[in-house]
């Protein structure tokens, strides 16, 4: 069962967003399938190692009652390398050591993340936040 929750994003002006949320299988987890702020775009290195604007076409966030959170972004970005590219906080150049992932749902940060860019440019960024 889905319920609508009104969230307020303050950036000088309060903007109301309707976000579809629901609990999964009776465990009390909160699932968000729509970006909870005006935009979930972010800047990061593409598959070619060039800093670029990511514009996710899919967003998914799960928050458990124990405080753990999993946030996933998917979409497409440039990758002309001919192979998959995987970035993590400890990947090395061009990724700065200790690079964090920011949760658009909770504002938390984590170094437990992985960005996979397929040879065809499909990306998946998964960020794991623990309590």
What report would you give on this structure?
The protein has one domain. It contains no helices and 12 strands. It has strands at 2-10, 14-24, 29-32, 42-45, 51-54, 58-63, 69-76, 85-88, 101-102, 109-110, 113-117, 122-129. The strands form 3 sheets. Strands 1-2-3-6-7-12-11-8 form an 8-stranded antiparallel sheet, with no helix packed on it. Strand 6 (58-63) and strand 7 form a beta hairpin. The two termini are 27 Å apart.
Q: How would you sum up this structure in a few lines?
A:
The protein has 131 residues and is an all-beta fold. 0% of the residues lie in helices and 51% in strands. It has no helices and twelve strands.
Provide the fold topology.
Elements: E1 2-10, E2 14-24, E3 29-32, E4 42-45, E5 51-54, E6 58-63, E7 69-76, E8 85-88, E9 101-102, E10 109-110, E11 113-117, E12 122-129
Antiparallel strand pairs: 1-2, 2-3, 3-6, 4-5, 6-7, 7-12, 8-11, 9-10, 11-12
């Amino acid at each position: 069962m889905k319920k609508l929750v009104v969230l307020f994003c303050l950036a000088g002006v309060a903007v109301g967003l309707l976000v579809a949320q629901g609990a999964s299988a009776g465990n009390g987890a909160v699932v968000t399938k729509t970006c909870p702020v005006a935009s979930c775009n972010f800047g990061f290195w593409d598959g070619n190692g060039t800093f670029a604007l990511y514009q996710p076409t899919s967003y998914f966030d799960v928050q458990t009652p124990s405080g753990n959170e999993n946030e996933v972004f998917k979409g497409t970005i440039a990758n002309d390398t001919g192979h998959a590219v995987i970035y993590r906080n400890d990947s090395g150049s061009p990724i700065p050591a200790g690079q964090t992932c920011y949760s658009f749902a909770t504002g938390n940060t984590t170094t437990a993340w992985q960005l996979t860019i397929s040879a065809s440019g499909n990306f998946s960024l998964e960020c794991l936040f623990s309590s």
